[in-house]
From TrEMBL:
Source species, domain of life: Bacteria
Localization per Swiss-Prot or TrEMBL: Cell membrane
UniProt cross-references to Pfam families, sorted A to Z: BPD_transp_1
Occurrences of domain ABC transmembrane type-1 (ranges): 1-176
Protein name, UniProt field: Carbohydrate ABC transporter permease
Parts forming coiled coils: none
Family: Belongs to the binding-protein-dependent transport system permease family.
Taxonomic source organism: Blautia caccae
UniProt KW keywords: Cell membrane, Membrane, Transmembrane, Transmembrane helix, Transport
Amino acid sequence: MTNSFMAFAITRNRGRKLYDFIYYFLISAMFIPFNIIMLPLVKQVSFFHMDNVPGLIILYIVMGLPMNIFLYSGYIKSIPTALDEAATIDGANTFQMFYKVIFPTLKPMNATVAILTFLWCWNDFTMPLVIISDQKNQTLQLAQYVFKGEFATDYSLAFASYLLALLPIVIFYLFAQKQVISGVTNGAVKA
């Protein structure tokens, strides 16, 4: 919800220098590969003692912000500003307008952002590898790396773990699929 609220504020105030700067600053962060910032990030994370699972979650939130803002702002541009004006005339403040009028309209984009973010976080191998220092806090993808040895690979255990890693993604997508499909069909019909 915070990413969509920030995208709403930026999108509705485009044309002002500050909001344009914030938008382009966030979008420019998408073009920096993780491999470039990996070493300084590891040093900062270890300095702040964030080399654990909560620290990894905070990093995923911060590093996912540019892409989420980009997706939300593109969708919010298609929502007419007449809805904002009608809510303002009815006496709603900015937060009420967003929460009661705009946010329900964002259901398809919320599902899309949730699926993309979940896929990215769930399948990520590099960031947990370099950030998490304690071996007992490994993610499932890091634990799968153990099955591949230097001279042999335990395929039965490896494929069982691959199935376990795939199952939550499929279940999550099945629940969010209806929203994504309705968003695609609604977007095709808009004039």
